[in-house]
Amino acid sequence: MERKTDITQAIKTAGLKVTPQRRTVYEVMQELRHASVDTVIEKVRERNPDITVSTIYRILDSFCRAKVLSSVGNPADGKHYFDITVGNHHHLFDGQKIADYDDPELTRLIYRYLAGKLPGDTNIDKIQVQIIINHLKSE
Amino acid sequence: MERKTDITQAIKTAGLKVTPQRRTVYEVMQELRHASVDTVIEKVRERNPDITVSTIYRILDSFCRAKVLSSVGNPADGKHYFDITVGNHHHLFDGQKIADYDDPELTRLIYRYLAGKLPGDTNIDKIQVQIIINHLKSE
DNA sequence: GTGTCTGCAAAGAATTTGCAAAGAC
DNA sequence: GTCTTTGCAAATTCTTTGCAGACAC
Question: Measured in angstroms, what separates residue B17's CA from nucleotide D1's C1'?
């Protein structure tokens, strides 16, 4: 879907050196969109078992600090996921599943609403709405 | 601040048996509002060093499943926190600090907005807005 | 070339488990 | 009395580290 050079660009632009290991992690995240460490490790090693677990941890860490990836915590189970999308966007949580919910209008709506509510000097970096879906079970 | 019986009630209402260990964990969470496992362990053991780490894990787990506590993931550092507040409410993230932002009007605003946007059969359990504050540093 | 990144193996944390005794209701 | 919870100690699992060689630029 995305070309080789785009991956290279994404990593380079973030100020990181481009290595095959980083490219693989990035590729995997592009496919998964949201994933826990375990899943990333699993998928990366499927493609290339020579990449070490510790390297994957280090890459995920550098990606987060360089804002190549972001973090989401699933409120349902409290688990931590990496997210290929860095900018303002929202999430639908359906049990273990996380889906993006991209809605700039909603973002603007909230920004506008909050403008009058928070102290004037508050600098909002980002707004994320988490929508938790309930599979109404007989109970 | 909260009386003994209230703590008992909170635990009992959730369908769990009331034990001194559970009462202590609950008390600590009442004070902390938001806390990581480490912090809970630390504070609980300050009060009563006889309570085991594994017990604390088990209690936190049972509290979450019984919805005595909820989970928040700090999007800034990806760490997981427990939250004494279970119902609909929002959060301000300021680096490591998490603050509640309770605003039913905002909640309603989003509910209303989403009503027209999501598939009709989507059952929203909960909405949480995460507001990430940026300490604009010279950069 | 220089400085960063990776693999490896080991250390260190964090979390979970099995079981017997203690405790809640 | 019955079923659940706890303490203990050990096992597992998860994550980080130090260092030397490899690699990106």
Answer: 17
For A63-87, write each residue's pLDDT tens digit: 999 999 999 999 888 899 999 999 9
Residue B48 dihedral angles phi and psi, to the nearest 5°: -155, 95
- Smallest Cβ–Cβ distance between A126 and the set B77, B82, B132 belongs to B132
CATH 1.10.10.10 at A7-132, yes or no: yes
Residue-by-residue DSSP string for A85-128: --SS-EEEEETTEEEEE--HHHHHHHHHHHHTTS-TT--EEEEE
Determine the Cα–Cα distance for residues A93 and A97; give it in Å rounded to an integer: 6
3-state secondary structure B2-43: CCHHHHHHHHHHCCCCCCHHHHHHHHHHHHHCEECHHHHHHH
The overall pTM is greater than 0.85: yes
Give residue-wise pLDDT tens across range B17-70. 999 999 999 999 999 999 999 999 999 999 999 999 999 999 999 999 999 999
